[in-house]
Design a protein that fits this description.
29-stranded mixed sheet; alpha/beta
Length: about 450
């Protein structure tokens, strides 16, 4: 035994309740180290002193055996609290307490009782790593302003975190024999489930991940379909949330690792019958491929076709852009022919095209003839002309067949250019349809393609 006004070191002793209280509450001691000791229980807090406690010393328990219980309640721990390789067969409870510095429980074995953290606040890192919990582990209404790590721990009984806020939750290399419960918790920065095994699955639907920046899921093990989580909470907005630790210098290797994560998630959602989320998972995998490998063609594939998983983007680009480009041509150069095609009676008021010269200032001395609508269609307002030409442009681009009537009308007006432009738009539309059939990958289109043998 070594004692001084700031150090108390004890090894290989049995303590009764009064002796351990005297040591722990000694005002003159700033650091206490207890190693290879046995005691019945340890109580720090209001139940012993009669009022809340500001505990301003650093205390370490190393390879100790606490037979009945370990209690911290209504206390404010101002310095580090370290518990390593503890053998416990009683109740561990931390309640209504504030920890200004780190709290560490390392390599403990907890065989009887319950491990409870209730209505407490932790302003520094909390590490409960490499431990074996054969007892229920529960956290209620607590706040972890820094990292909360349970790395390398095994949980052989129930696990519950409820109504709590956690900045970083690190559960890598853990094993959960029972399905853990996460009820109404929020994770602000990082969720690490690397190399973690959930033998009966995991439900994260009551976990708020909307503000989480990084989620690590590499080598996450769970039964097929037993990871229940809202993809809206997981998917990235400005960048993907799903990430890798220890990136390799080999980009292809990094992509293979990230690909394995996403394909596992995709199969998980399919097993749950959630094909929409499964498609969104594969969309983000394609986005990851663009980011990791830096391919221009992958970027173009994403912009134009949404990597095959965003049909709406395909309708906007390039189909809508093409319709607008050809609308400009039909409106300014061939409106009277378009109007006649859409409504034969309309043509009686139009007559042959009338053109006026317009100078485009960005092309020096270049004059292009466009239709003078005030002469060719004075009784038709702009909205009607706009509708006519947009309708015609969309019909040509997306139409299945090229109508013979268009050819006859073009011949009546003796304009081969109209026919050439219309044919070009029609052929371009067929190319878009073929690309759509072969490159759109969402499930409901894949089902139709399989029926058609494509």
């Amino acid at each position: 035994m070594v004692t001084a006004n700031s150090v108390y070191y004890v090894e290989d002793r049995n303590f009764n309740q009064q002796e351990i209280r005297k040591i722990v509450y000694a005002k003159e001691l700033n650091y206490i180290h207890l190693q290879h000791i046995t005691l019945d229980f340890l109580l720090i807090g209001e139940s012993f002193t009669g009022s809340p406690v500001d505990f301003s010393k650093s205390i370490t328990f190393l390879n100790c055996n606490i037979t009945q219980g370990f209690y911290i309640e209504s206390s404010r721990i101002l310095k580090g609290f370290f518990v390593s390789s503890i053998q416990n067969s009683g109740w561990i409870q931390i309640m209504n307490s504030i920890f200004e510095r780190g709290l560490l429980f390392w390599h403990g074995k907890y065989e009887k009782g319950i491990f409870d953290i209730v209505k407490s606040e932790f302003k520094d890192a909390v590490k409960m790593t490499g431990s074996n919990f054969e007892i229920p582990f529960r956290i209620y209404s607590s706040t972890f302003d820094s990292t909360y790590s349970l790395k390398g721990s095994t949980f052989k009984s129930t696990f519950l975190i409820q109504d709590s806020k956690i900045y970083n939750l690190l559960l890598s290399n853990c094993t959960f024999e029972y399905k853990p419960k996460f009820n109404h918790i929020s994770i602000s920065d990082t969720l690490d489930l690397t190399n973690t095994s959930f033998e009966n699955g995991i439900d994260l639907r009551r976990t708020d991940l909307s503000k989480t920046n990084a989620i690590f899921l590499e080598n996450l093990d769970y039964p097929p379909g037993e990871l229940t989580i809202y993809w809206e909470e997981v998917k990235g907005k400005q960048k993907p949330k799903i990430s890798l630790k220890n990136l390799s210098e080999d980009k292809d290797d990094n992509y293979k690792r990230i690909e394995e994560i996403y394909k596992r998630l995709n199969k998980n959602y399919i097993a749950q019958g959630d094909n929409t989320s499964a498609d969104q998972v594969m969309y983000e995998l394609a986005w990851q491929k663009e980011i990791i490998l830096g391919s221009f063609w992958q970027w173009l594939y994403g912009v134009s076709l949404g990597y095959g998983y965003s049909p709406i983007r395909y309708l906007i680009f390039p189909i809508l852009v093409t319709i607008i480009v050809f609308w400009f041509i039909w409106y300014n150069f061939y409106y009277n022919i378009v109007a006649y095609i859409l409504n034969k009676d309309l043509n009686t008021d139009l007559g042959l095209p009338q053109f006026s010269n317009v100078t485009f200032h960005f092309i020096k001395k270049k004059r292009i003839k466009i239709v003078d609508h005030s002469k060719t269609s004075p009784n038709i307002n702009f909205i009607t002309r706009l509708w006519h030409t947009l309708h015609f442009s969309a019909s040509v681009l997306l139409g299945i067949r090229f109508k013979g009537r268009w050819i006859r009308i073009a011949k009546d007006y003796d304009t081969s250019n109209f026919l050439l432009i219309a044919t070009s738009e029609w052929l371009l539309g067929k190319i878009y349809i073929i690309l759509f059939i072969f490159y759109i990958k969402v499930h409901y289109f894949e089902n139709w393609k399989s029926l058609l043998g494509l």
